[in-house]
Amino acid sequence: MRALVLREHGGLDKLTYETDYPDPEPGEGDVVLRVRACALNYHDVFTRKGMPGITLPLPLIIGIDVAGEIAAIGEGVEGYAVGDRVVIDPINRVQRGFAGETFDGGLAEYMVLPAHMLIPLDDAISYAEAAALPVAYGTAYRMMVRRGGISPGEKVLILGASGGVGTGCVQLARQAGATVIVCASSEEKLDRLKALGADIGINYATTDWVEECRERFGRARVSRKGEGGVDVVVNFTGGDTWARSLRVLRRDGRMLTCGATAGYDPKEDIRYIWTFELNIIGSNGWSTDDIRALLDLVKAKQLTPVIHPQRFPLEDAVEAMRLLDDRQVFGKIIVEP
User: Fold this and answer.
1) Are 159 and 275 within one domain?
2) What is the per-residue pLDDT for 225?
3) Domain count of the chain?
4) What DSSP character marks residue 45?
C-alpha cells in the first residue's frame, strides 16, 4: 500500500512516501480501516522529531486523527460490518497505546487497529469533519466544558487561537455565551476568527496584548473580586506568554492549559497567583464521551470544525507537514489518502 513512513527521527526529510509498504492484516479483535481522512496535529511533529525519554517503534506511520470505512474485520469483532463509516478515538484505552505513535497511524491507505477504538460515524458528517475532531476539538471540549466550566457573560482570552485547538476553543466559548477575545499574528487570521464568533481580536505581532487587555478591561484589583481583568485565559502555548497571562486575569480568575507548544518550563511569577487568588486548571486530552458529544454537536449543526482551505493527497503529505511546522495553517489540515 501507499504510506508516508518515518524510519528515523528528525526533519521533514525523514518522512518518505512509499508505494510498497506492507498491507495491514487484522488480528483477533481488529479491523482494517480504509483511511479517507487524516488530520495532522502538532503531536505528529513531536513524534517525527523524537521526544526525550520516549522510544517509539520505527519504522512508523504517523497520523493520529483518522476517519474512514471498515475494509476488513478480524475474528471476534461484533457490531461492525465491512463498509461501515467510523472515526477513531486515537487512544487505545485497553492495551494502552496511541495511534500514529505506538502503532501505525493514518498517513496511509489502510491502518489496522482494535475495534474498541472505533466510533460509528453518521452519514451527515464528512470524513474530514470527523477526522478534525478527536485530538484538537476533544482537547478543547474537555478544557473548556468539562474542566473550565466557561459560563455566559464571562470574558475569555484565547492565545494561539488560529490553530486546531484554538479554533475549537473559540467556537465552544462563543456557544457558552462568553465574550471571546483572541490573539493571532495577522489581521487575516483575526478576520477569520471573528467570522467564527470572536468578539475582539488582538494582533500580537503589532500590539502588546497584555497592555491592550488592561486598557480594555482594566487591571485586577485585590479588594474587589471580579473587577478588572478577564475571567479566563486559555493558554496552551506556555513559553514567554505564561507569566504575562497572569497579569490580565481578574481576582479569582482561571488560567486553562492543556499543553505548552512554545515551551513547558517558562519563568513563573507566583506573586500574581497568591495576590489575586488565581486558579490554574490543567486539562489532559479527551475521553471517548467527549468525541461522541462533539459528533452530536456537528450533526446538529451547532459546531463546524474549521478545516484549512487546502487539502492534500498522501503523496503531498510532507508539504502539509511543512505548513504545520511553519504555523501557516488555519484550523485543521487534512490529508486524504
Assistant:
1) yes
2) 64
3) 2
4) H
* pLDDT of res. 234: 98
Per the DSSP assignment, residues forming a β-bridge with 173 are none
List the grid coordinates of 2. Answer: 501507499
Say whether both 139 and 278 belong to one domain: yes
List all residues 6 or more positions away from 80 whose beta carbon is below 8 Å from its beta carbon.
31, 70, 73, 86, 115, 118
Enumerate long-range contacts of 183-192, CB under 8 Å, 24 or more apart.
183/157, 183/158, 183/159, 183/209, 189/161, 189/162, 189/330, 192/162, 192/330
In a domain, 263, yes or no: yes
Q: Are residues 119 and 156 in the same domain?
A: no
Low-confidence ranges of the chain (pLDDT < 50): none
| Number of CB atoms found within 10 A of residue 328's CB | 10
Does this model's pTM top 0.90? My answer is yes
Burial 107-146 (b: 16+ CB within 10 A, else e): bbbbbbbbbebbbebeeebbbbbbbbbbbbbbbbbbbbbe
Contact (CB, 8 A) for 304 and 136: no
Find the largest Cα–Cα distance for the chain.
Answer: 68
- Lookup: cell for 11: 526533519
CA distance 284 to 287: 10
Residues 5-51 have pLDDT tens digits of 999 999 999 999 999 999 999 999 999 999 999 999 988 999 999 98
Residue 170, Cβ density class (10 Å: 0-12 exposed, 13-18 middle, ≥19 buried) = buried
Grid cell, residue 265, equals 518550563
Distance CA 317, CA 190 (A): 27
Q: Sort strands 200-203 and 179-184 into parallel, antiparallel or unpaired.
A: parallel
